[in-house]
Amino acid sequence: MKKFLTTLLFVCTILLTFCMVNASAETDGIYTYSISNGEATITECSDSVSGELVIPDTLGGYPVTYIGVGAFGSCISLTSITISDSVTNIGDRAFYGCDSLESITIGRGVTSIGGRAFDVGNKLNKVNITDLEAWCNINFADHYSNPLNIAGELYLNGVLVTNIAIPDSVTSIGSRAFSGCSSLVSITIPDSVTSIGNWAFNDCSNLASVAIPDSVTSIGDGAFCECTRLESIIIPDSVTSIGNYAFDFCARLISITIPDGVTSIGSQAFHYCTRLISISIPDSVTSIGDGAFYSCTSLENIIIPDSVTSIGDHAFGSCARLISITIPDGVTGIGDSAFNGCSSLESIIIPDSVTSIGNYAFEDCARLISVTIPDGVTSIGDAAFSRCGSIKGIIIPGSVTSIGDYAFYDCNNLRVVCLPVELKYVRNDVFKECSGIEVVFYAGSEIQWNEMLFYSGNESITNAKIVYNATKKTYKLETNCDATLEDVSDYAIFVMPTVENGEMTLLGWYTNRALSGDPVTFPYYGDITTLYAAWTDRTGETFDKAFITKADCKYTVTTIENGQLVYFEFVPNRSKEYHFYTIGSKDTYGYLYDASKSQLGNNNDGGEGNNFYISYNLTAGETYYIAAKIYNGSGTFTLVVEEPVDYRINEITIKDMSGNSLEAIPTRTFLATVSFTNVSSSEDTVIILAQYTDADAFLGLMYIQTEDVPTGSTIKLTIPVDNSKGDVTTLKAFCWESFDSITPMGNSVSFPAE
Q1: Measured CA distances, 416 to 197, 350, 424, 734 (Å)
Q2: Which H or E run includes 635?
Q3: What is the 3-state secondary structure of 106-172?
C-alpha cells in the first residue's frame, strides 16, 4: 500500500509539472491566454474593448489557434471582429452576449465552432469569409454556432454571396454550412460532393434553385428546411435517404420526384409544403416518417407503394385536399393522427396486414364516406374516427378487442353499426353525439348483448334498434344497362353503388323494376334484396339538361373543368321559403333562376365554410333553376334542396299499458309515443300516427292537431293503439300542413325502423 501511494504521488507531480509548463496563463494587452503544445488559446478579452477588433495571429510568439470558452463574453461594445487564419477552433459561447456586434470575418483556418458561440444580438448583419471550401468543411456545433443564422448575409472576400458554385475540391457540404443565408439565391453543387449535411441550407429564404449532382447519396436532416422560395428540386438516383425535416416548410415547393434508390422518407421531410400538388414514392421506400407530409394542403393524390411497411404518426395529417389513398399490404399499423384533418378524403382501403389504428388516425375526415376495418385489427385508438361526419355505416370485426374513448364521436350521419359477439365492452363516449344511429346488427344473442358493458356516453347505441344474431344478406344489383355489378354480401350496402352507362347519369336505386316511389337511401339494409338502377340523359350542363331535384334531397356531382356550372331544376309543391346550399370542402358559388332563366339571387360564402347558401320564397308548381360551381378549380360538391318544416318528427317509442318499454309491436293494446319538435311557428300542423300491415296495407290513422306549442320545444304525445287482432306491424309518424292540405310534409319516422 505504501509503495502504491508513493507511485501515485510521483505521477501527480509529473502531471502538475507538465501543466505548469504547457498551460501557463499569460497576458498580452487586452488578451489573457494560455500556452499548450506550443499554441496559444485566448481565454479572456478585456471588457473595455470596443469598436473593431482584429484577433492577432500570434500572442507571446505562439500562434493563436483556439478561442476559448466564453473568451469574449463580456465584450458588449464590440461592433466588428476579424478572426485570423491561424485560428482553427472557436469554443462554446466564445462571443456569447456580444450584442453590439455588426460584422464578423472568419479566417480560412477555422474547422470547428462550438455551441452558442455566436449567440449575439440582432445587430449582426454581415458575415465575411475568405475561403468557400474551408467554410463548407467547418463543424458547427449548433444553430448559434453559425453567425449566418442571425446576420443572414454572407460575403466572400467582401462580395455579397447570391449565386455561388461550390468548388470541385469539396466532397461534402457540412452541417449548417449555409443555414440562415438569406442572401443566397442559387447554388451549384459539383460532382465531387457526396453528402449534404444536416441543416446545410436551412432557412435560406431566397434560395430558388438547387442542382443536386448524381454523386450525392444522402440529404441530411433539415437540409432545405424553410427554403420558402424553393419551387422545384430534382433528387438524383444516387440518393438513398431523405433526412428528417429535409424540406420542412418549403412553402413554394410544387413538385418533387423521389428516386428509386430512396429507402426511407424522414420525419416531417415535407412537413408544411403547402403547394406540393403531387409526389411519386418509389417501390424502394419502406418507411414514411412521422409527419412526413403533414399539412401538405394542396396534395390531392398519392400512391403508397407495396414496399412501405410503416407509416408514422401524423404522416398525412391535415392534407386537406387528399381525396383517396390506398395503404399497402405490408403496413401493420396506422399511426396516431396519420390522416387527421384530411377533410377531402372520401375513401380509404386498409389492408388485412394492419393490426392497429392509432389515436385520432382519421379524426376530422369530414368527407370520409366509406372505410372497411379488416379482420386483423385488434385495437381502434381514441377518437380514431371522431367527427367523420359522412360515414353512414361501420363494421367492427371480431378481432377487435379494444375501442378507444370517443372513437366514433360526433359521426352525426352514422346510421348502421355492426358489432361482433367477441366485443365485451364499449368504452366512454365511443358513440357519443351519434344521434343518427338507427340499427345495430349484433352477431350475438340478446342475452350476450345484455352482458356487454357499455360505459357512459353510448346511449345512441343502446337506444337503437338491435338486430340479434345478425347475419349478412346477399344484395343483387340490376344496372339496367350493359354494365354489371357484383353481388354484395353484407349486413347492409353502406355506400351507394356507382356504375357507368355511357353518357347517362345514375339517378338512384329502387326496390322495384318499375322504379316507382322514391329511391332507397344508403346505408340500405331492407328486406328487399334486389335493387334496380334508374338513369337519366340529363347531364346538368345547361338549363335544358338540368338535373331534376326534389325537396329534402342531396345531389352529389363532380366537375372536371375550372369554374364549370352545374344546373338543377326544381318545382316546389308548396308556396313557401326554400333553402339551397352546398356541403363539402370546396369553395362554391350559387345562383337561383326563375322559369324564364332570369336570375333571382346569388351567393358566395353564406353557408358553412366556403359554401353558398340561398333562401327564397317560391311559388308552388312554378319551375326554378339552381346553378352551382366550384369558385376556383374543379372537384366534387353536394347540393342540398331543403324545404323547412314546421315540425320535425324525432322518434316513436312503444310501451305496454303498465308503462314497460317494448322492442316489438305486441298483439294487444299498447301505448305509442311520438316525439316531435316545433321548428317554426304554426297552428294548423297535424301530427299523424298511421298504422300498416305486414304487406304495407294502410289500416287507419290517429292524429293530433298541434296548438300553442312553443317554437324550439320538444313534445311527446302518447296514443293508445288497439292491436288485439294482431294485424298492425308498422307505425309511421309524419306531418300534414293542415287538414286542408293533407299531403305529408317534412320527415317521417317508422317503428320498427326501416
Answers
A1: 53, 20, 19, 22
A2: strand 635-642
A3: ECCCCCEECCCCCCCCCCCCEEEECCHHHHHCCEECCHHHCCHHHHCCEEECCEECCEEECCCCCCE
- CA dist 44 and 62 (Å) reads 16
Produce one character per residue of 686-720: b if its CB has 16 or more CB atoms within 10 Å, e if not: bbbbbbbeeeeeeeeebeeebeebeeeeebeeebe
DSSP letter for 253, please.
-
Phi and psi angles of residue 89, each rounded to the nearest 5 degrees, phi first: -135, 135
| Domain extents in the chain | 547-642, 647-751
Q: Percentages helix, strand, coil for the chain, rounded to the nearest 5?
A: 5, 35, 60
Contact in structure between 737 and 745 (CB atoms under 8 Å): yes
Encode pLDDT of 596-605 as tens digits: 999 999 999 9
Helices (H) and strands (E) in the chain, counts: 5, 61
The yes or no reply on domain 547-642 and CATH 3.30.200.20 is no
Give how far the C-alpha of residue 459 lies from the chain's centroid of Cα atoms, to the nearest Å: 29
C-alpha closest to that of 570 among 604, 588, 543: 543
Pairwise CA distance, residues 22 & 509, whole Å:
94
Bridge-based pairing of strands 112-113 and 139-140 is parallel
- The cell for 25 is 496563463
pLDDT at 707: 66
**Strand-pair category, 714-722 with 669-678:** antiparallel
Interval 112-125: pLDDT, tens? 999 999 999 899 99
Question: Cα separation of 324 and 311, whole Å?
Answer: 16
Q: How far is CA 156 from the centre of its chain?
A: 44
Cell 510521483 sits at which residue?
A: 10
Calculate what percentage of the chain has a pLDDT beyond 90: 67
Grid cell at residue 248:
420542412
Contact 630, 572 (CB under 8 A): no
User: Which pLDDT value is given to residue 719?
Assistant: 86
Residue 196 to residues 192, 216, 236, 242: CA-CA distances in angstroms?
12, 7, 13, 10
pLDDT digits (tens, 9 = 90+) for 150-163: 999 999 999 999 99
Q: Cell 352529389: give the residue.
A: 556
Alpha carbon 118 to its chain centroid, in Å, reads 39
Indicate whether 347 pLDDT > 60: yes
Chain segment 589-643, per-residue pLDDT in tens: 999 999 999 999 999 999 988 899 999 999 999 999 999 999 888 888 889 998 8
What is the rounded CA–CA span in Å between residue 203 and residue 23? 41
What's the pTM value of the predicted model, to 2 decimals?
A: 0.71
Within 13 Å of residue 406, how many CA atoms lie on the same side as its CB? 13
Burial of 518 (0-12, 13-18, 19+ CB in 10 A): exposed
CATH of 647-751, one of 2.70.50.40, 3.40.50.300, 1.20.1250.20, 3.40.30.10: 2.70.50.40
Query: Considering only CA atoms, which of 441, 327, 452, 463 is closest in space to residue 394?
Result: 441
Quote the pLDDT of residue 655.
94
- Mean pLDDT across 70-75: 94
Strand, coil or helix: what is 10? helix
In 3D space, the residue among 427, 420, 483, 481 whose CA is nearest the CA of residue 458 turns out to be 427
3-state secondary structure of 15: helix
Q: What angle do CA 170, 174, 176 make, to 5 degrees?
A: 140
Please compute, for residue 438, the number of CA atoms within 13 A of its CA located in the half-sphere on the CB side.
Answer: 19
Residue 682: its pLDDT value, please?
Answer: 58
What is the C-alpha separation between 469 and 461, in angstroms, rounded? Answer: 16
pLDDT more than 70, % of the chain = 95
Q: How far is CA 681 from the centre of its chain?
A: 42
